[in-house]
Every structure is written in C-alpha cells, then in structure tokens.
Amino acid sequence: MTDWDDGRTPSAAPQPTLGKLFEQLSEQATRLVRSEIALAKAELTSKAKASGIGAGLLAGAAVIVLYAVGVLIWAAVIGLAEAWPLWLSALVVGVVMLLLAGVLAMLGVRTFKKVASKPETIDRVKDDIATVKGAVKGDDATGTTEEARP
Known about the structure:
150 residues; mainly alpha; 3 helices; elongated; transmembrane helix; transmembrane; Phage_holin_3_6; membrane
C-alpha cells in the first residue's frame, strides 16, 4: 500500500521509545528553563544599570536643587533687607523656614503613626500561621482537637 500521492511508500523510520521521548522532554525543559534564566539575568542587568544611572542623575539634580534653594533663601533675605535691617530680614527668613520644617515634620510623624497603627496584614498572616499549625496538629480554628469533637 502506498501512502504518498506519487506512489512511494514512506520509509519505516524507527519510532522513538517512550523513555527516549521523556528524556528529550527533560532535556528540552531544562534547556528552556536555563534560557529563560539567562534572559531574565540579561534583562535585570540592563535594568539595574539604567536604574543606577537614573539614581545618579536624580542625586545630581537634588544637589543642584539644594543650592538653588539656598540662593533663593539668600535672595529673600536680601529682598527683605531693603525694608528692614539685614539681621532682621535674615531672622525672619530663618524663623519662617523653621516653621515650615516643623509643619513638614509633624505631617511626616502623623503619616508614620498611621502606617504603624494598621498592622492588619501582619495580624492576618499570624492568624493564618496559627491556623495552619493547628491544622497540622489536628486542631481546628476554635482550638478543639478532632478527638474532642462529637
């Protein structure tokens, strides 16, 4: 019997055994995982390098902003010195800056207290761990053992 349109019969190529197929599957899966890990490493390396460059640029910008704020503060002192003595204008600008820093510090402390006062997730995780430990020991969530149940 011919299986092909031109009348030829297909050569009887040996079929791989089930063991050989599983061996090939294992090799290909291992190769795939290694390739994915190598790709992930390459991507993370390039992202880390770009992130490092970005962090350096942001740090440079922060330094420049710090100097710019200093210049603007000195300009405010000089501007107020047109109406008041220099010492008084510097004192006023300094007090205003301290008040601003105090307000920002209070807002920051309030924000930290809000975050610290909401440990619901930690409590839930602790409850989950206790439930799992109880289940492993044969206790249910109420603390009774299975033998004690009717």
